[in-house]
Amino acid sequence: MLLAPSLQNLPAVSGPMPQTRPVDYLRISVTDRCNERCLYCMPEQFQAWTPREEILTYEEILAIVGVAVERGFKHFRVTGGEPLVRRDICYFLRELIRMPGVETVQLSTNGTRLPELGEALYASGLRRLNISLDALDPERYRAITHGEVAPVLAGIHHAKALGFSSIKLNTVLIRHKNEEEIWPLVELAASLQLPIRFIELMPVSLTEMLTEENFLPVGEILDLLARKDTLAPLDTKMGHGPAQYYRLQKTGAVVGFIGALTNLHFCESCNKVRLTADGHLRPCLGHHGEFDLKSALRPVVDKTGLFSRLDQALAEKPPEHGFRNNWQPKRIMTAIGG
Questions:
Q1: In the beta sheet, which residues pair with residue 78?
Q2: All domains of the chain, ordered by start, with CATH?
Q3: pLDDT tens, 45-93?
Q4: 37 close to 244: Cβ distance less than 8 angstroms
């Protein structure tokens, strides 16, 4: 599946790239399974799950984190698939949060299991959540995710009531699917005093979604919001990702924009690498290169081998993604990790 020609031909990042970008942020996928099937993440009929014996154990992941901390990593995000479908996830989060050198731990979730797991997550020490919310209208939400929006909304309210210190809402932009949802989502975020981020569709699925017809740039959303309110850029950075944030002066909403395709400087400050659930370190979402860590974990942990593979991955982290260059995904997003 190819990106539309107009996207393929976007110019490369302008200006010199930094010679060194401190990489201190590891996104950890604990499963490739999910209880939803979002159009931009997992093909509807996909069944090629990684065999359970190939998924890293929690102890193996923590061994990798220990090595990463020694190499200067400080910030960690737990993802999937949907991380809350994996058994004993709260045990893993508690152990991760306790590790010396770990400064922040965040969890990305579709929110569907927050009503039942919220208390246990909070008790584990977790305080930071990113929750996907692509529409408020039940039919539109179902069309995008093949799921139900009611438990997600209940989970968001439940997490806020529990006192999580950071809750961000994420919306993937899909033309003809959720343009009409943008302002209602902003109003919801304002009413809950939660930031919401709008994210451009990226070529990380094997579905028919990756076309110019479906691509909705963040610039259009900026224009839409500017017609309704005044946007003031925020001086302070929120979190460790690439979002650019604004405050809407009338509603008070804080909105962020993640434009991997249209922001030509998107990669310049990238500080992350990804660990897949099956034990591969991926320096860049938009490059196919991966480094096998599992062979340094089984049958016993080889710490020297882990250091070597991590160092190689960091040395070969590309200066920018390849999404604009006739990109063809080989692994879908649920297999790579969100």
A1: 28, 107
A2: 5-13+22-336 (3.20.20.70)
A3: 666 678 999 999 999 999 999 999 999 999 999 999 999 999 999 999 9
A4: no
